[in-house]
Amino acid sequence: MHLSEIIGARLQEERKRLGLNQEQMAEKLGVSKRTQAGYEAGTSEPGAIYLSRAVGEVGLDGLYVITGHRTADNVDTLSEKESMIVEQYRAIAESDQLAVHRIIGAMAELANQKK
To answer: Which tens digit of pLDDT belongs to each residue from 68-108?
Structure first.
């Protein structure tokens, strides 16, 4: 696998972590969907301006995309969807929060059994 393909795969992984599809990512970063797809496929390489905007405006972990090592500050960064879930969780009654804990705990246990 060539470096451009590795970087492309990491770009795709980060886009998915952020809860965005290719069209949404492209729109946020001012490129076409075709360009975004090319970056992710490794058929073309993103430039410094694209990467800078992706880090600053979208929250992409640029260090990870380039090196494969996570930035410590971004390990716990929440995507838009995750932030929304946290906000909703904080807005519900404590008894409902306990129910959410039970549901998520059961789901995590099932997921671990499948591994």
So the answer is: 988 775 556 777 888 888 889 889 999 998 999 899 989 98
Model's pTM, two decimal places?
0.63
Q: Distances from the Cα of 35 to the Cαs of 8, 90, 115, in angstroms?
A: 11, 39, 36
Q: For residue range 42-54, what is the model confidence (pLDDT) as tens digits?
A: 999 999 999 999 9
51 and 89 share one domain = no
How far apart, in whole angstroms, are the C-alpha atoms of residue 112 and residue 115?
5
Could you tell me how far CA 22 lies from the centroid of its own chain? 12
Residue 7 and residue 18 in contact, taking contact as beta carbons nearer than 8 Å: no
Same structural domain, 21 and 36: yes
